[in-house]
Amino acid sequence: MSKLLDKIQTLSQQLKLSQRIMRDRLQLINRQFALLIGLMVLLCFMTLPFALVPTQKEESPAEDGTPIETPDLTEPEVVHEDLGDEPVESQPELSIDDLEKRVAAGEVTATTRVMQKGDSLLGLLSEQNVPSNERMEIVEALELLMNLKSLRPGLTFLFFHEKDGTLAGMSVRPKETESLSVLREKDGSWVTFSQTGRIETKQERMQVVIERTFAGSAKKANVPNSIINQITAALDGEFDFSTDIRPGDTVDIIVESKETPGGVEIGTKQLLYVGLKSGKKEFHKYSYNNAFYDPKGRTTEKMLLKKPLKARPRLSSPFGRRRHPILQYEIFHKGVDLAVPKNTPVTAAADGTIEIIGRKGSYGKYIRIGHKGGYQSAYAHLNGYRQDLKVGSKVKRGEVIAYVGTTGRSTGPHLHFEVLKNGKVVNPFGNNKIGSTQLTEFELEKFQSWAESINPEFKKHLAGKVPPVPKRKPF
Ligand SMILES: [Zn+2]
User: Fold this and answer.
1) Residue 458 pLDDT
2) How many whole angstroms from 317 Cα to the centroid of ligand 1?
3) pTM of the entire structure?
């Protein structure tokens, strides 16, 4: 019996075999007598656990023929759980939990990869250096568990690699509560598992005391880079960590991370709260619906960047009347000219949406972005654009959008930068700010009860005086 079981590899084989055994036994019963029936019942119960183990993926064992008629089938879930452990003793089974434990032990590495638009499973596998023959095998194995057409951007894949680089397995969660995995057997074949188990979200509180620079102190306190970026973004427009931070200032953060039941972290950590004490000033920001709000539910009022470049420019021509360097007569200069080396990255002056991207007469290569508050910003004489941008793309303040050039009517590499308010050009060095938004009553309530749930000090922050947005120094 046990020799037979060892050979059983697949579900259907196992079912058929167990049924054949049952049939054999039944024939025996026909020939022999009631004395044997007692023995038979016993045998049935012994065979049953092995027959039922793989049926967790099989919805109806009846489709293969006569179902196994025993009272135990009325409670199949209990049977699976109670008896499923038994074969493990003789032949250890692979499981995603074991693999995740091996990750924790440092024997296997886990790589998280979030599916992007245009990605395919085959592409992701090739990215993980999986040989082409294995890629197809894995895809076919996963296809047994899910319709691969339902793979969509945003799904998180985990790839597990052995020390020598071979793929030990992979998993994906089509739902928060369901994990599907394909694991490599010792003989090189692939087995699939479907498992329920919720992703656990963990919150962690950290504090950074500034010694010299913010980034340096944060790294020393083991704050990951992605969180450092989120902290500066949360206080963008109100506090400049490169110039305003002082030794002794404190940054208090709450960070959320996601873990599989086996304790493998997936996705990137998210900043939920940042509190900054700098001298007498205090700032408290809570992340809510992809934006940062103060305790009263307001976003920060933000100035448009005056020099939207990744390098310090020389002002080669100011806004207003001037003699044009090429045309040699007085014209109105609709923007500012910022001289920097060719290919210096150009950044968006504020959050917004690309309205124009392409050549525009004497402007050469050109981008215009629409912002809130009736503002638009335009960037001319560019050498090139960031590859993925097109009309309708959303960009964030300070995000690279293009590279400085000298296309169109231009005497040398520089950025011609314009700001428009309600369709009219305004001085880019003027006081151009996009007002804050305030959460409405219902949203505000939801936001505040959430903020209180993650930070017990929220009420104190709400009662405290929230400092006004500090005035920035003029250019
Ligand atoms: Zn200009």
Assistant:
1) 92
2) 7
3) 0.55
